[in-house]
Structure formats: C-alpha cells, structure tokens
Amino acid sequence: MNDQSKFSSPRRVALYARYSTDMQNPMSIDDQFRMAERYAAQKGWLVVQRFSDGAITGTASYARSDFLRLMEALSDKNRGFDIVIAESLDRISRDSEHLARFNKIAEHANIEIHTVERGKADALSVGIASVFNTMFLQGLSTKVHRGIEGKVLGGLSGGGRVYGYKIGTNVRGVPMTGTRVIDEIEAAVVRRIFRDYAAGRSPIQIASDLNTEGFPSPAADTKRSSSGHWKQNTINGNRARGTGILNNEIYIGTVIWNRLTYRKDPITEKKTSTLNPESAWVIVDAPQLRIVDRDLWDAVKARQASLSKRKAKLVSTDRNHMSTGQALRRRKYLLSGLLFCGLCGGRMTVAGTGKYKTYYCAEAKEKGPSVCTGFRGLRDSIALPLVLSGLRQNLMAPEAYETFRERFQQRLRDSQGASEDALRLHDSRVRDLETSHRNLLRAIESGDDVGVLLPRLNAVDAELKEMKGKRDQIVPPEIELPGNLPELYREMVSDLAASLSEESVAGRAADELHELIDRIVVHWDAEANGHWLKIEGNLLEMLRKSAPRELDAARDSAIFAEVGCGSRI
To answer: How confident is the model over 179-226, as pLDDT tens digits?
Structure first.
C-alpha cells in the first residue's frame, strides 16, 4: 500500500531543483526533476508545479526568484499542492537559517517536505542537514581560499576580470584559464585616465569624456547591474581599499590579493567588504603586467595626497557635505585660498575682473564692522608680482634651468606616449565603425527594415569620415628639444606672473603654491599707505632671501607692498 491509499484524491506535489554555478551542467535541473517525479510516482502522487533556479548559490535566498515564489506559495491558502520534493535538503538551501525558516513556514502551512535521498524530512533531519551544510560551507571556503592563494603565488589570476587585461592564449590561440595578458586598447584607456588625472582633470570630467567618446566601461558586457557607462567612482575608487582604476597596483606590475574579505550581510544578503590587515595581503611582482610607469603613478598618488590634505582641513557646513566637494574644485586664481585678513584672521575673497581684480576681507564685506572693520582691498596686480618675485629669482639659477630642461624632455616623451595611445584608440574605434558599416550593409541587402537601418548607416558613415579625417592630427610627434629652449625658459621666467595668471594654468599652479605656502596674512599700514604681506610656510626663507629690493622685502618675515598716494585699492 502506498502513501496515497488513505486520501480520496491524489496528493499534489511541487518540485524544487537548483544547481549552483554557471560552470555546472544546466541539465542538472532536468535530472533532479526526473528523480523527484519518479519518487512521486512511486508514492502515487501528482506533480502539479515545478520551481527551479539555475547558476545561483544555495546560500542565497533573495537572489533566487523561484525559491521566493515557492516561499510565497507556502503561505498561500490556494497554493494547489500539499508536498514539496527536492533531491536533497541542500538543494532547498545550504544556509541553515534559510532552511529552518522554510521548514517552519511549511510546518505552519501543514505541507510536508520530502527528499529523494531520505524521504520525509522532520525537525531532526533538517537540524542535522543544517549542521552538515554549515560545516561543508566553512570547509569549502577554506579550501577555495587556499587554492586561489596558490594560483596567485604561481603567477595566475586570483579571479575576476581587471580592466586593461584579457585571458592569455597558447600558441594555438586557445584561451588559458587563469592567465592574464595586457589588452592594448584598454591599456591605452588606463594610461589616458592616469595622464588626465595627473594633469588636473577630475574623475567626473574624465568619465564624461570617455562616455562621450563611446569607450565601454569595465562594467560593460558583464553580469553586473550597471548601465555600462563610466562613473567617477570607477576611476577614483577608494585608495585604502585599492579599488578604482587609479588605485590598482597591478597597473605598475604589482598584484595584491586578499586585501579585502567579502562576507554576506545576513539581512540584505548582499556582499560587503572589510579591509584586511596588511600582514594578510599576498603581494606578487608581475612586471609583465605593467601598464603605467612609476613616475606617472607617483604623480597621481601625489595629487590624491594633496587633495586628501586639503579635504582634511575643510569643515563641511551642510548635511550632504556638498560644501566640502565644492571647496576641493580646482582653484581659479593663483592666490585663491591663500590670503587671510590680518585683523580678524578670516579668508580674503576676490572681486572684480581683469586689472580691477581685488582681494577683500570676506568677514568685513559680508558681516560688517562688528565682526571685522576691514581695510582697503589688495589688488591682485600688486599681490601676485610680490609673492612671485622670490620665485623668479630662484628659477633663474642654472640648476633650476637644468631641472626644467629634464622635465621638458620628459613631458615630450609623455606627450609622444599619449599620442601613441590616442592613435591606438582612434584606430580601434575606426575598426569598430567599419565593422558596424559592413553589418548594416549586409542587413539592408538581406531585406531588413531599411527605414530603421538607413539612418544608422548614415550616422556611422558620418562618424567614420570624421574619425579618418582626424588621424593625421594625432600622429605621435618626434622627441626633439627646441633649439631656442634657453631663450624660451628665460622668457617664461621673466613673465612668470603673467604666465601663472592665465586661467589655463592658474589652477595647477595654485595647487603647487599651496604645497609651499600655508597662508599669506595681509596687513594694512596706514602710515605708509600700503599693504604688507606675511608669508607663512616653506617658501618664507626663499622669499626673504631673494625678493628684489625695489619691492621692499625688509621687514623681518614680511614683504612690504608700496602703494602710491591716492591709489584706490
């Protein structure tokens, strides 16, 4: 007598099947269903519903759509089944909490759980299965971690795709799992990101440019829920955690594995990461994977450190910290943020344009004499030459010119490398457009909708023509120093104030000046009818020793700015 004999009608059954990863055979679902159907048939039961999840780990519940449907059905009075059958309890879940909850809901709904392996499940079998599943998962985690560490130490990939690289192939062109080689097209994008950031462009600007030019982001064509566009976080990431293009040491030929530990949040079931102590990191030299040279890497790290230093000095005045972000934007003027009022200690703000650009005490201007009485404004045309006079004298020294010449030559070499990368990216884009052009023509010839395809074909044609016309403009230049470089250098130094005041370079120069000078305190001398400036910072000694006499650098650690009688400043 089978289990159906005491029921007037066949008992109704829901089947559940699951396989864990996309490396396992999807046919496993069919195999599990076949075994469960055979078990039901032997009992005289009727299979009425099937639930299955493919390529999803058994420790997840919220990510399994059919498992969630089955859980909802358990609580539905009109569910239409009395029994749930799975191949084994670990197919329902390997997570002890999830399995216990599933069993609790099933008991409350008076639904039996059966497995092909052990028949009807009770509280004891569920408890034992939970213990074994927990032990299995812990042991598996340890073994997988050990195996991946061995691969990394052996020069192979520790898993996951890194932008700028692709899977290596053997002499027959067959992919070799675990190997990495440089992808020259993506490597060119990586170098461009580093160069642009070192030159002062923000991650947002860099991401916007890459999106405008149509370069796929690291998230494109992956399983991640992403638009496939570049974002500032993709570039900037987190320095301490080594995330983001700008922080991944693999680009300078150093592989760091086990920097982070990933665990599943028990509430959201999303993976969260924690930073491991540096002693737990596995560090392997991989010079064959170097994409960025050390000098460029160091330039990026120096700029990141400078921005972090500036940010640490700022106090956010709003809930979303937008004021801090705005303060970190590139300075527009060379002396931006350096001038402070000698009366109240507040910052001085600039007003006016061109030759009328003048610095005033912001406290006096905005809050009135009860906070600060203020004094006459200081013309930028007076302050800037005063501060730069010391720089000018030192820059005319022979050793300063030699440093300039070396850096100029290095800049030319960098420019050639940037042009080579730009040319590589340009040619790659042209090849993509040519492929699209051929495919569109083939589709039109095959009789596909011309009304839809023709506008796209015309757009591709136009872009292709434009791209081919630009090629000559980005051919790498020859590395050759100008014959009149000494004269150019002397002219640049002699006109230093004008050069650094140009908006195109003032922002970067201001950042450098902030590294040397902490602050410039502006005082008003009523008797002399002029301002005098006190420079505080590493540049002080140089200014005191080298400022020209005609600018009256004569007051201890101060520089006097003489103002003609009746000048309106």
So the answer is: 999 988 889 899 999 988 988 888 999 999 889 888 888 887 776 666
- Which pair of structure tokens corresponds to residue 339? 């001038």
Task: Tell me how far apart the alpha carbons of residues 48 and 68 are, in angstroms, rounded to a whole number.
Answer: 18
Report how far residue 513's alpha carbon sits from residue 383's, in angstroms, rounded to the nearest whole number: 14
476 contacts 420 by C-beta, under 8 angstroms: yes
Q: CA dist 454 to 278, 362, 444, 468, 488, Å?
A: 57, 60, 8, 21, 54
Instruction: Give the helix/strand (H/E) hosting 13.
Output: strand 12-18
CA-closest candidate to residue 110, choices 160, 69, 76: 76
Query: How many whole angstroms separate alpha carbon 36 and alpha carbon 568?
Result: 95
Strands (E), 218-306: 254-257, 260-264, 271-275, 282-285
Mean pLDDT for the chain overall: 78
* Cα dihedral 119→125→131→135 (10° resolution): -20
- Residue 49 near residue 14, CB atoms below 8 Å: yes
| Per-residue burial over 258-283, b = 16 or more CB atoms within 10 Å of its CB, e = otherwise | ebbeeeeeeeeeeeeeeeeeeeeeee
Interhelix angle 398-445/485-494, rounded to 10 degrees, is: 100
Please report, rounded to a whole number, the percentage of residues in the chain having pLDDT higher than 90: 28
Q: Residue type at 80?
A: G
437, 456 Cβ separation under 8 angstroms: no
* DSSP one-letter code for 337: T
The SS3 call for residue 155 is coil
Whole-model pTM?
A: 0.58
Number of continuous H segments (helices) and E segments (strands) in the chain: 18, 18
User: CA torsion angle for 150, 153, 156, 157 (degrees, to 10)?
Assistant: 80
Residue 386 to residue 380: CA distance in whole angstroms? 10
Question: Which DSSP letter does residue 284 get?
Answer: E
CA distance 149 to 143: 10
The answer to whether 106 and 86 have CB atoms below 8 angstroms apart is: no
